[in-house]
Amino acid sequence: MKFVVVTSCATGIAHTFMAAEALDRAGKAKGHEMVIETQGAGGYKPTPADVIASADAIIFANDVRIRDEDRFDGCKIVKSIPKEAIKNAAGLIEQAEALAAN
Amino acid sequence: MSVFSEELIALDLVAVDKVDAIKQMAALAVAAGRGSDADQIAADVIARDEMGTPQIDGIAIPHARSAGVSDAAVVVARTSGVVFDPEEDPAEVLFMILVPNEAGDQHIEILSGLARRLMDPEFTAGLRSADSKSALFQLLTSGDN
Fold first, then answer.
1. Is B60:B91 a contact under the CB 8 Å cutoff?
2. Alpha helices of chain B — where are they, by DSSP H?
């Protein structure tokens, strides 16, 4: 499957990137294609619309608002926080798999 | 200037609690010339900690932007265990990321690269097993960040 991950946190220095790395590793470990968008203190590169459209599901791990969230309108989204992603990335990947299979 | 330095490493920090650890690490940053005001740095890190400090597998990453910091720095300390979050195990390795208020994107890139590497089990095993400050410094400055 193909998942797009978007992470964001209050200072944009640590949680954002740790959560992104945890989900990237957990997803790839199960053979998924992972596209990562980190919305950190240094800004972010918006994932292109065609990539979002081709994803089986989206995973948000944020504790501040996702920027340009309307890009994901109509997508299947697993919503989470960075702390959860860091602790239990594999569990979130399972949720995304289940959501995508529905 | 690298965000790392041997002067910013404490292999056996003895601290009674997280506030004590943060204060000692802030003092280390000032002693190494990375800032002017250890009290201000400690206060800013403690304030950020109240909103949650990231932690993974016994490694805690207290961090802050602070007016007390002049040059971005990462203070690394190994301890016998400091509780940051009562829901988590005590942290044995502390990475304190300090950024000046006016930090540019370059610092953020370095620090986000570090945050990523902390998710790599080989890197974190090396942090625990390095037997000298210079060995730990080599590990921190090797690789892709």
1. yes
2. 18-31, 38-49, 105-117, 121-129, 133-141
* pLDDT at residue B103 is higher than 70: no
Q: How many helices (H) and strands (E) does chain A have?
A: 4, 4
- CB-CB under 8 Å, A21 with B116: yes
ipTM of the complex: 0.70
Residue with tokens 């990539």: A51
| Neighboring chain A residues of B94 at a CB cutoff of 8 Å | none
CA dihedral for B58, B59, B63, B69, sign (positive or negative):
positive
Q: DSSP label at B35?
A: B
| Mean pLDDT value across residues A70-89 | 95
Q: B142 with B114: CB under 8 angstroms?
A: no
Separation of alpha carbons A20 and B15, rounded Å: 31
Question: Distance from first CA to last CA of chain A, Å, rounded?
Answer: 13
**Helix (H, G, I), strand (E, B), or coil: what is residue A16?**
helix
Q: Are A13 and B48 an interchain contact pair (Cβ–Cβ within 8 Å)?
A: no
Is B105 near chain A, with CB under 8 Å?
yes
Is B144 a residue whose pLDDT tops 50? no
Q: Smallest CA–CA separation between B14 and chain A, in Å? A: 25
Q: Using the beta-carbon criterion (under 8 Å), do B112 and A11 form an inter-chain contact?
A: no
Q: How many Å apart are CA B74 and CA B99, to the nearest integer?
A: 9
